Amino acid sequence: MTPSQGACTGVIDQKIDLLVIGAGASGASVAYEATRRGLRVALLEAGDIGCATSCRSSKMLHGGVRYLELAFKTFDLAQLSLVREALMERAHWIEQAPFLAQPFELALPAANCFEKAYYGVGLGIYDALSGQRSIGNSRLLSKTQIHQALPLLRAGVNGGVAYSDGQFNDARLNLLIALTAERAGAILRSNCRVVALEHRADGQLCGAISETSMGEQEHWRASVVVNATGMQADSLRKMADANIAPRMLTSRGVHVVLEANLCPEGIGLLLPATDDGRVLFLLPFYGRTLVGTTDTACKLNEACAPSQAEQHYLIEYVKRWFPDLGQPIVKSCWAGGRPLLKPAGKAINSSRVVREHEVETLPCGLISVMGGKWTTCRPMALDTLKAMETLLGRAMPTPSALPLLGAAQNPALTQTLLLEQQQQLRQLLPETPIQDQQIAHLQASYGLEALALVEKNSAKQLEPLSDVIPICEAEIDRAINQEHARTPTDVLARRCRLAMVDMSEAQRLLPVVQEHLAHADLPKGELDLQH
Ligand SMILES: Cc1cc2nc3c(=O)[nH]c(=O)nc-3n(C[C@H](O)[C@H](O)[C@H](O)COP(=O)(O)OP(=O)(O)OC[C@H]3O[C@@H](n4cnc5c(N)ncnc54)[C@H](O)[C@@H]3O)c2cc1C
Predict the structure, then answer these.
(1) Fold classification of 102-167+249-341 (topology level)
(2) Which of 114, 116, 156, 220 sits at a 20 to 30 Å CA gap from 101?
(3) What secondary structure does DSSP assign to 17-46, as a single string?
C-alpha cells in the first residue's frame, strides 16, 4: 500500500465498503443511499457538514424555469428531461421533509399582454412537466393582484404569472441527510480533511488518509472511494492521477438579505432577464427579502467572498424594481461557488453550462460525482451507486426504508404527527409573546424530534433568545453535542440560520454561543460567513 503523502497516526481497522469524501448535499446523499442498502459507510468532511456550496444556495427546490426556456430555444431534449427530473425531486423532498421544504409561489412580472401570454404558456409547460408530482398550477395575475402581492413593485408592471416551486432550508436538510445516515450506522466525521489517497501495488485505490485541524491523521481502508467534494473535485482527482485534466469551473453566486419585506404575501419575484441576460430572484425569507444571485467566474479560493461590486449589482436591481423603497438596508450577505462541469477542453461562459451532473470512474477506481444541483442530489447519489456496482461487478442490496430524522415512516403520517406535536409543544414551551413563532421554528428545524428536545430541557434553556429566529440555549447545546457543530458559524449560520438572515442579531448572540462552545472545551471562535 503506498500513501501518496503523509504518515498515519491512527488506523481505522474496520474495513469499510464505501468512503465518501465531502459532506455537502451530494456526499451526504451518497452516504444516506448507501447506508440504507446496508453498506458500511464513512463520510468525511473537511469543514462543517454542508459548509461549502450546499448552505449557500438560493434555497429553492426547482426544475429551473430558465433551463426550460433554454431547452425550447435550443430544441434540447436533454435539457428538458433535466427540468423534469428536477421537478420530480422537488416533489420528493417536499413530501419527505415537509417541515423544512414547502411549495411557494413566484411571480413573473409582465409589461404587456404579449409577455404575459408568453410566460403563461411557458409556465403551463413547466406545470405539465411535473405531471402527477405537481405542487400547484401556475395562474395569471392581474395588475391589481401583482401589486397587492408586491406592494412596492414599480409602476408599469401590468400583471404577470405566478407559478409554484419549493423553498427549503438547505443547511438543515444537508445535516439531516448526513445525521440520518449516521444514526443508521455510518461513520460521520466533520473537520476531517482527506489529504491523500492510497493505492495498492496494482494501482487500484484502496483508501485514504484524513487529517484533522489539530494535525491528527487517520487511515481509512475502503472497497470504494467516492469524491463528492463539489468545487474541489479536481483536487481529489489529481490526488488519484496527477496528470488528469481538470473538469470543474467555479462561478460565484452572491445573495443579499434585505431588512425590508418586499414579499409580504409570501409570493417571490423572478426577474427573467437582467441587462446581462441573467435571472434574479427576490424571495420571502424570515420576514425579510433574499435577493440573488450573481454568476461571476472566479478562482476557487474566492468562491465564498462576495465583492462590493456584486452586492451593488443586486441592490441596483432592487432599487430599479422597487423605487419607493429608498436605499435598502442589508442585514446579511453571503456567497457560494457553483460546482460547474466544464465540457472537456472548451472555454465556456459559466451561465451557459448546463447544470447537469456527471459520475466519472477513473482507471484507479476513484468515483467522482460532479456538477448537478441541490434539488437533484438524490439522482446524483443513485448514479454514483450505479458506478459503484459497475466497479465492483455486483448489484447493490435492495434499499430499506430510512425516513429522515424528524420524519415518520410515510409523508401522510409525518403531517399528522406534526400537527399533534404542535399542540404538545404549546403545552410545554414557556409562554412568551413569540410562542407561535418558536413552535414554527422548532418544527421547521427538527421536525418530529422537536418534542424530545423540548421535553429534555428546562424552561430557562427553552427561553427564546431572539425574535428574528427564536433560537434557545437548548438548541445551541444540541447543535454542539448531537449535530457536530464546532464553531459559532456552524451554530449561528447553519444549525439555525440567524447569521444568514441577520448578521448583527447573530453577533449579539455570539457571546452566548461562545460560552457554550467553551463549556464543551471547544475554541470560542468568531462569526465568519466565508467559512
Ligand atoms: C449561489 C448559488 C445558488 C444556488 N441555488 C440553488 C438552488 O436554489 N437550488 C438548487 O437546487 N441548487 C442550487 N445551487 C446549486 C447547489 O447548491 C449545488 O449544486 C450543491 O450544493 C452542490 O453540493 P455538493 O455536495 O456537490 O458540493 P458542496 O456543498 O460544495 O460539498 C462539497 C464538500 O466537500 C468538502 N471537501 C472538499 N475537499 C475535501 C477534502 N479534501 N476532504 C474532505 N472534504 C472535502 C467541502 O468542505 C464541502 O463541504 C446553487 C449554487 C450556488 C452557488
Answers:
(1) D-Amino Acid Oxidase; Chain A, domain 2 (3.30.9)
(2) 116
(3) EEEEE--SHHHHHHHHHHHTTT--EEEE-S
